[in-house]
Amino acid sequence: MSELLLSTWTFATIANAAAWPALQAGGGALDAVVAGATAIEDDETVDCVGVGGTPDADGVVALDACVMTDPNRCGAVADIRHYPNPTAIARRVMEKTIHVMLVGEGAEQFAAREGFQKRTLLTEAARQRWLKWRQEHGPNDPNGYRGWVPPPNIEHAAHQSTEPGDPPSHDTVSLLARDRAGTLAGACSTSGMAFKVPGRVGDSPIIGHGVYVDQRAGAAAATGNGELIMGVCGSFLVVELMRQGAGPQDACAEVLRRIAERFELERNHQVAFIAIASQARGGAWASAALRPGFVHVISDERGTRVEPPHFTLLKS
Length: 316
Ligand code: ASP
What we know:
binds aspartic acid, alpha+beta, Glutamine Phosphoribosylpyrophosphate, subunit 1, domain 1, 23% strand
């Protein structure tokens, strides 16, 4: 099977640039997704993953991540406040413990024991975004923590032509890779929803929500409003539909339809999935989004491209 690296949002070009050469040269799928996520976590200019991520309502950056290669091989961490690379820590949880997920203080103690280095996650740029948000919509807002509503097109708002002073939004880097042996791997890393209620964890680090991989059926990963994705076990459901015979595009589209049917969608709600079918199921890949604005980054034998999704459910 030919190698493939598929990831979410324009900033994932950083991830693909870091991970694709080794994958193309015969490296493993798990190494590729961890290397890609790590490159973004270390890039301070990306305002929603790793160092430079947007903080919670108290001004604290709290990171979530997971990795997965099969139902019996997955690892996750949440609420990481002092270590810049949650994806690598999640991999270590998978490889070195009998558990799947560690959170908060325990996860940080584990990271320290494993030799990960602490780093201040809140950059001055992120602090300024938080100060502005707090002034306009902080806990004194009569609507409370729910007061700030992200703008409709989260890709535009967070990463493209952000006007000075625009509030940032929430995105995630989700990555799926297939290596030369046909093995699939997935990873997801995020600072979560901007200005979230402290303690909030979204879909991203939760196996079956942010990422799901089953070598027998395929791999899927999500980005967007975690609360919507969690309501339908989004990534698990995409893979399950592929197991039942759907192609990756139809599987992603069906899960988006399920979300649209079961939630009262607000204009700012966005969800997108990326998916790769297993080798046994033909190996096709696809992406799909609830609304316009989402893009994926694909690296394959034709090179690396930023492209719109194959399917968008709503017109705006
Ligand atoms: N899914 C992430 C979360 O809800 C954020 C995002 O992808 O925009 O934490």
